[in-house]
C-alpha cells in the first residue's frame, strides 16, 4: 500500500547488494511511495551482487562509487544532478564493512591497517558523502539524509568488534554534519539504529543467529525487520519529519530501553 509520501522527491540509495539488504528494501519502498532514485554501490558489489535486477524494478540508473574514493563520489553527484536536472531530496547511507571481522581478528588483536579501511568504508564515508554533496550543492533545501547504525555504539556487544567504535563515529558525524548542513541549507541528518537483521553484513558477525534470537526475546515488540526499517526511513525522508535532525533514532522494538524481559528470565531460571 502506498501513501505517496515521497511523491515528486528524488534520492540516492547507497548499499543495495542483494534482496536481503536494508537498502534494497528501502529503494523499493521509496519508489512505491512515489520517489525517483539513483542506485549506487561499490563497483565490485555491482559486479558480484544483483543490483541491476533492483534497478530494473525501480527504473533507476546505477552509478558505481567506492565510498572511499573522492573521484567516484564527485562523479556520482555530478551524474545524479545531470540525471535529475538538479539536486536530490534524500540520501540513504546503508554501508558497513569490517575487515577485521572478515579476517576473524578478535577485538583485543586488531590489525590497524584493516581498521583504517573499516573506518573509512563504514564511518568516514558518511563525511565524504556529505562533504561532496555540499561541494556540488547536491541536496535540496529541507532535504533528509539517513545512515544506518547499531546499538553497539552505546552498549558493549563483544562480537560486534571494531564496528562498535566505528558506529560511534558515524553517529558523531551525524550530529556534527547535521549542525553544519542544517545551518547552511535546512538539511536534516539522522541515524537509524536498527535491530539485528539477517543480511550479508549482519551474518558476517559471529554468533549472529543466537544474538538475533536473544534480541527478539529482549524486545517488547520483537525485532524490527528490514521492511519495517525501510518504512521508518521513508517517514524520515517525508515532509512529516522536517524538524528532526542530529538524532540517533532507535528502530528496535524497544530493545534499547529494556533491562530484561520475562521470556529471558524464564529461560535463565533453573
Ligand atoms: N544487518 C544488521 O543486523 C544491521 C543492524 C543495524 C545496522 N545495520 C547497518 O545497515 C547498513 C546496511 O547493511 P545491511 O545489513 O543491509 O548489509 P549489506 O551487506 O546488504 O549492505 C552493506 C553494503 O555496504 C556496501 N559497501 C561495502 N563497502 C563499500 C564501499 N567501499 N563503497 C560503497 N559501498 C560499500 C556493500 O556493497 C553492501 O551493499 C550497514 O551500515 C549496517 O552496519 C545492519
TrEMBL record:
GO molecular function terms attached to this record: enoyl-[acyl-carrier-protein] reductase (NADH) activity
Taxonomic placement: Bacteria, Pseudomonadati, Bacteroidota, Chitinophagia, Chitinophagales
Annotated pathway: Lipid metabolism; fatty acid biosynthesis
Name of the protein this chain belongs to: Enoyl-[acyl-carrier-protein] reductase [NADH]
Family matches, as Pfam families: adh_short_C2
Superkingdom per UniProt: Bacteria
EC number: 1.3.1.9
Enzyme class: oxidoreductase
UniProtKB keywords: Fatty acid biosynthesis, Fatty acid metabolism, Lipid biosynthesis, Lipid metabolism, NAD, Oxidoreductase
Family: Belongs to the short-chain dehydrogenases/reductases (SDR) family. FabI subfamily.
Species whose genome carries this gene: Chitinophaga arvensicola
InterPro entries from the UniProt entry: Enoyl-ACP_Rdtase_NADH, NAD(P)-bd_dom_sf, SDR_fam
